[in-house]
Amino acid sequence: MTGDVKRRRFERLILPHLDAAYDLARWLMRDGAAAQEVVQEAYLRAFRYFDSFHGDEGRAWVLAIVRNTCFSALDREPPAGRFEEFDESLHCDGPEWVPGPESAAMTHETQTFVRDAVAALPEEFRETIVLRELHGLSYREIAAVTDAPIGTVMSRLARGRGMLAKALASRAKKE
Amino acid sequence: MDCTRTRQLLQAYVDHELEVSPALELEEHLRRCDACRARYHTFRQLRATVGAAIAFTPAPDALRRRIAQRLHTQEIRARPWWARRAALVAVPAVLALVAATLVLVPKSDDSLRGSPVEKIVYHINEGTDPATALRNVANHLQLTPGLKAVVVAHNKGVDFLLMGARDDDGQLFEDQVAALKARGVDFRVCGNTLSRRHIDPTRVIPEAKLVPSGVAEIGRLQTKEGYAYMRL
Ligand SMILES: [Zn+2]
């Protein structure tokens, strides 16, 4: 690919996912300015390695690079997902939370509470929940982005939701 | 479909990930079973609550402009702040290639189970031809699935791990290192060598990690972690 063709193809396939990239980086870095730095670096990296991209799933491809760049910037290894089993016993019970009447029209306080609860999740649950609930990725796409088997994605979703439900339940009890 | 099976599949159903025929069976069960229907509503309510509380933040225009500009000027090799950190801090690689490979190639999760893992520390020293060495490591990986390989560079052997170093064919070593790193090979650079030769540690490519001493690292891997030694 010549430089110009490559750039135009990159602009068409990868640049449109910049919003998703930035949002994911914000959730992982928990800081807007750091997220900007990371996304810029990730995009330039993605451009360098663009020749190795042969597919049409540009979003999952670039989000995986953004995620790895985030953990690099945080000076941490990304959470590994390889050998975690899909544990059906965790799925059997579902969230232990009975939604109260207020959840029909959610108060501003509840919104803040839930947002903080998501931000406080350990990162493997946080990224999985954010990719699912905010970005609407399928299990298969989340598996590709987070480098984890689908079974792991499903148990992380179930456990992450369980943690959020627990937080909501204990808050409801206090009120 | 019974309650146990319904509970197992409920999350996938709520996430619209269930195939049509189990989804229809599950719906049939939900119509008949109050307990499972209650669980289903809880699940949906939780999704709605979380979905309504967390908001998507679009990228700032300034960021969009900066990236577009850098792509135009091809200024893509500058180093980010976290790679410019002080000397002798481990700098884990940005696994862009890993990401690329893993998105495209489905991997087997069980391939490593059951057999003992072979662990090798390769020593790249003065007199080693790095291009040949990298080729040998790649061949070894090919033949030994699950091989745990660490490359320790020391003395003149560190030069190929510096930014912009190229082999005789003009190919960037960094790209070759990134490709091996993507296959699980770790690269470590001797910090003593850098200070003795007055090489600024920020010149080391981000795929490689700095260790205080190459010799000590080789010794540690052999005695503490059971690595076999191989001089390349
Ligand atoms: Zn039931």
Helix content of chain A: 55-70%
Estimate the global geometry of chain B from the Cα principal axes: elongated
Tell me the fraction of residues in β-strands of chain A, as a range.
under 5%
The domain tally of chain A reads 2
Annotated CATH homologous superfamily of the largest domain in chain B: DsrEFH-like
Task: Label this structure with key terms.
heterodimer, A: 175 residues, mainly alpha, Rna Polymerase Sigma Factor, Chain: A, Arc Repressor Mutant, subunit A, 2 domains, elongated, B: 232 residues, alpha/beta, Hypothetical Protein Ychn, Chain: A, 3 domains, five-stranded parallel β-sheet, 9 helices, 47% helix, 10% strand, binds zinc ion
Secondary structure elements and pairings:
The complex is a heterodimer of chains A (175) and B (232).
Chain A: H1 3-13, H2 18-29, H3 32-48, H4 58-73, H5 88-91, H6 108-120, H7 123-134, H8 139-146, H9 150-174
Helix pairs in contact in A: 2-3, 2-4, 3-4, 4-8, 7-9, 8-9
Chain B: H1 3-14, H2 20-32, H3 34-53, H4 61-73, H5 96-104, E1 119-124, H6 130-143, E2 148-153, H7 173-182, E3 186-190, H8 191-196, E4 209-211, H9 214-225, E5 228-231
Parallel strand pairs in B: 1-2, 1-5, 2-3, 3-4
The structure holds zinc ion (ZN).
Description:
The complex is a heterodimer of chains A (175) and B (232). Chain A is built from nine helices and no strands. With 175 residues, chain A is an all-alpha fold. Chain A has two domains: 1-82, Rna Polymerase Sigma Factor, Chain: A (Orthogonal Bundle); 97-175, Winged helix-like DNA-binding domain superfamily/Winged helix DNA-binding domain (Arc Repressor Mutant, subunit A). Chain A starts with a helix and ends with a helix. Chain B has 232 residues and is an alpha/beta fold. Chain B folds into three domains: 1-55, no CATH class; 61-108, no CATH class; 115-232, 3-Layer(aba) Sandwich (Hypothetical Protein Ychn, Chain: A), CATH 3.40.1260.10. Helix content of chain B is 47%, strand content 10%. Chain B has helices at 3-14, 20-32, 34-53, 61-73, 96-104, 130-143, 173-182, 191-196, 214-225, and strands at 119-124, 148-153, 186-190, 209-211, 228-231. In chain B, 33% of the residues are buried. The model of chain B is unreliable at 86-114 (pLDDT under 50). The chains are: A mainly alpha (175), B alpha/beta (232). At the A-B interface, helix 1, helix 2, helix 3, helix 4 and helix 6 of A face helix 1, helix 3, helix 4 and helix 5 of B. The structure holds zinc ion (ZN). Zinc ion binds at residues 3, 6, 29, 33, 35-36 of chain B. Zinc ion (ZN) is lined by residues 3, 6, 29, 33, 35-36 of chain B.
